[in-house]
Design a protein that fits this description.
Pfam families: Amidohydro_2. The protein has 9 helices and 8 strands. It is α/β, with parallel strands linked by helices.
Length: 251
């Protein structure tokens, strides 16, 4: 069983994105997809509404496969209302933060508190770059700040923070921070390093589809993992992460 906790529908490319996701489910035996909509770096209110509507549509069309993240721009005054609509009306399972603000911006705090009340995870894009860092692109340090402030929040730091030797080190002492390794710019031993630092119990499989899938699948298959650790990463950790009856801290 495989649960992919980090996939996308690209804005304006609904048919292409969803077709790619469903073909991957069929080809690679993926049981469940957690999906967010993305387009521009600083989306306005209408773009946010359109992207969340796309995810909601996919959930309705593929109820056995698709679950959704509610995408919010914390800079918008209606961000709380957007989150409530996504969770309470659309039936989404988490919140998505991208690059409109740092994740530890005070405007994010009311959203995190709402997610704590819902007992849902927050998927946080996190990427530390040598060049090309976006103005409000979260790194592991920002995630650590948020985890310190809200130890009861379920935080899913994406991409191993863009550089696992930077991102993982920043948050390894915060048990409410989980990790995915979605995307393609990673070395063979990154997953081994992450397991050594935070344990397999805090790592969730994600691919960043429709960008890539096989790179991340190959990382799990090639890593020095036990069969039990692979099961944790492929699906068991995701089941726990999205269980609303459980806290943000893996036991």
């Amino acid at each position: 069983m495989i649960i992919d906790a980090h996939t996308h529908i690209w804005g304006g490319k609904y048919d292409d994105s969803t077709r790619t996701l469903l073909e991957a489910c069929e080809r690679f035996g993926i049981s469940k997809l957690y999906v967010s909509g993305l387009k521009s770096h600083d989306p306005d209110e209408s773009e946010i509404a359109s992207l969340n509507a796309d995810v909601s549509r996919f959930m309705r069309e593929q109820p056995d496969v698709a679950e959704g993240y509610c995408y919010v721009n914390p800079a918008h005054p209606d961000a709380i209302s957007v989150l409530k609509r996504g969770i309470e009306q659309y039936g989404m399972s988490g919140m998505k933060l991208w690059v409109a603000t740092f994740c530890d911006d005070p405007r994010v705090f009311p959203l995190v508190e709402q997610c704590i009340g819902y007992q849902i995870p927050i998927l946080i894009h996190s990427f530390h770059k040598t060049v090309g860092q976006l103005p409000y692109e979260t790194t592991g340090i920002h995630v650590a700040n948020l985890a310190e402030r809200y130890p009861e929040a379920k935080l899913l730091m994406a991409h191993f923070g863009g550089n696992c030797y930077h991102g993982i080190k920043a948050v390894r002492d915060y048990p409410n921070v989980w990790h995915d390794f979605s995307g393609s710019p990673f070395r063979r031993d990154d997953l081994d390093y992450a397991v050594e630092q935070v344990g397999a119990e805090r790592i969730v499989f994600g691919s960043d589809m429709p960008i890539t899938y096989l790179v991340n699948y190959g990382q799990v298959e090639e890593a020095e993992l036990t069969a039990e650790q692979r099961e944790l990463i492929y699906y068991k950790n995701a089941i726990r992460l999205f269980d609303r009856g459980l806290s943000g801290r893996p036991s």
